[in-house]
Amino acid sequence: MFRSVRNMIYDLIEWRSQILSGTLPQDELKELKKKVTAKIDYGNRILDLDLVVRDEDGNILDPEQTSTISLFRAHEVASKQVEERLQEEKSQKQNIDINRQAKFAATPSFALFVNLKNVVCKIGEDAEVLMSLYDPLESKFISENYLVRWSSCGLPKDIDRLHNLRAVFT
């Protein structure tokens, strides 16, 4: 919710600077004001704030100069528009989630669990065992390295890690 409100505020700040610049033609200015008021009403709804009733030009209706029935009808229209916008946002989010799931399902993902038990090599010196995944098609390593230092005695240098030399390559 924080990200969506933050993005709304950024949009409002940008639109405010466009309005204050005074370079917009009258029809674009009117459309931009409608967009601003719609965004404000939508943000108020998301934050569970009161709905502000406006006229066709986006101006706040004065309850002392507007009849009760007119206020009620304007409130119904505004409420309906905000709810439609919420439904659009939900459907867009669901479409994005479905696309993301489809993309994730289409991308193959594998994991390889390695548990190093022993290294048999008679060299009489300390050694390092380096493991990583290699892609022969692209001729490059595709994972991070896993390094184990092995002593000349046939045990890991870090004796605390005996029977706990594990790595997961994804």
TrEMBL record:
Origin organism is: Xiphorhynchus elegans (elegant woodcreeper)
- The source's superkingdom equals Eukaryota
Q: Name one GO molecular function term.
A: guanyl-nucleotide exchange factor activity
Gene designation: Dock1_0
Pfam families membership: DOCK_N
Family matches, as InterPro entries: DOCK, DOCK_N, DOCK_N_sub1
**Gene Ontology CC annotation, any one:** plasma membrane
**Ranges where the Dedicator of cytokinesis N-terminal domain occurs:** 2-170
What is this protein called in UniProt?
A: DOCK1 protein
Q: Which GO terms describe its biological process?
A: cell migration; myoblast fusion; small GTPase-mediated signal transduction
